[in-house]
Amino acid sequence: MNAPFPRPEEAEAAEQRAPGAPRGRGPRQQRDQAPRAPKRDIDGWVLLDKPSGMTSTQAVAVVKRLFAAKKAGHAGTLDPLASGCLPIALGEATKTVPYIMDGRKTYRFAVTFGVETDTDDSEGKSVATSDHRPSDADIEAALDSFLGEIMQVPPAYSALKIAGERAYDIARGGNEVVLEARPVTIHRIEIVERPDADTVVLEAECGKGTYVRAIARDLGRMLGTRGHVSMLRRACVGPFLEEDLVPMDELQARAEASEADLFDALDPVDSALEEIPHLSVTPSDAHRLRCGQSVILRGRDAPILDGHVAIFCQEALIAIGDAQGGEVLPHRVFNWAKSHRPRPAGGAPAARLHRDPPVEEA
To answer: What is the DSSP string of 162-176?
Structure first.
């Protein structure tokens, strides 16, 4: 985890230098002059087990620095309070982020009854309280109302925009936030544990745009009490499972051990596309697709596909396209890095990194 930002009094103390010490920002200048690792074209997914207390932006910055990657992004923000699955895309993997964000997500979270907060989690201030505590049977019955497509009002402290301004910025400014209910889908929600009368641990499998904090808020109200999220963990995102996650401290230890160990934690770009159909094409068709041209699927054994497809040539991902009526049109073409390619012991090419497939000129 990154070191916390210095408090104002710490920053002030740092400015009080000993007599005779050089003025200015000497230590900072020395850091700036230190050699930095050159940024590289790195392609793949890091399935980070984000620790609680770290923002998603901070987590991406750490991973990007460890890999010295030129480009990085994540597939869905996790609140600082939350831990768990934060898929981080490097390089060409950023082109597959929408397919992860559209996938189902599994959350494990604790709802604490008796208090509703302005943020709908334990970091907010209390806005309503209740002495009532629901029974297990009451909770089970209420959970049925959350299944399927429901209308949900997002939390006031959310990243949604109102007239171009983030809702949480409006709320922090002391102004009222009015958000319209919108449809979300909850495929599964069930009790995992009831540690005490004040708390229930739930697990939910949700579609895109679902706010777990809103589930806790609405469940409390439905049960005649109040509630907020006191623990939140994202277990899975799309095809990325909890057992495949890499903790931040392990990732940092790998980076200190060797480059080969670090790159062994990198999943291939196409791991994000397991939930859409795959199509294999010839090298000549691959060349046309990489040039942005459509291809016709010919022959009696040609697959019948409709919608998004992941397109491969000789087992290497070359594009994502749309298939309709036997024609495939690319809309995302992959340009694999040709610079630094880490190799494990023994000299064999790293198995988790893609190489350019050979193509024929049309």
So the answer is: ETTEEHHHHHHTT--
Amino acid at 247: P
CB 279 within 8 Å of CB 319: no
DSSP, collapsed to helix, strand or coil, labels residue 275 as coil
Segment 123-172, tens digit of pLDDT: 999 999 999 999 999 999 999 999 999 999 999 988 888 888 888 888 88
Q: How far is CA 218 from CA 126, 212, 215, 232, in A?
A: 15, 10, 5, 16
Sign of CA dihedral 132, 136, 141, 145: positive
Question: Could you tell me the pTM of the whole model?
Answer: 0.79
DSSP code, position 120: S
Active site residue 79: yes
Residue 152 structure tokens: 């949900």
Give per-residue pLDDT as tens, 32-77: 455 666 888 999 999 999 999 999 999 999 999 999 999 999 998 8
Backbone angles phi, psi at 225, to 5 degrees: -135, -155
Q: Residue 5: CB partners within 8 Å, gap ≥ 6?
A: none
Q: Assess contact for 45 and 272: CB atoms under 8 A.
A: yes
Q: Which residues contact 329 (CB under 8 A, 6 or more apart)?
A: 294, 321, 322
In the chain, the domains with their CATH numbers are 105-237 (3.30.2350.10)
Reported as half-sphere exposure (CB side, CA atoms, 13 A), residue 275 has a value of 14
Q: Is the pLDDT of residue 16 over 70?
A: no
In the set 41, 43, 49, 79, the catalytic residue is 79
- According to DSSP, the β-strands at 126-129 and 148-152 are unpaired
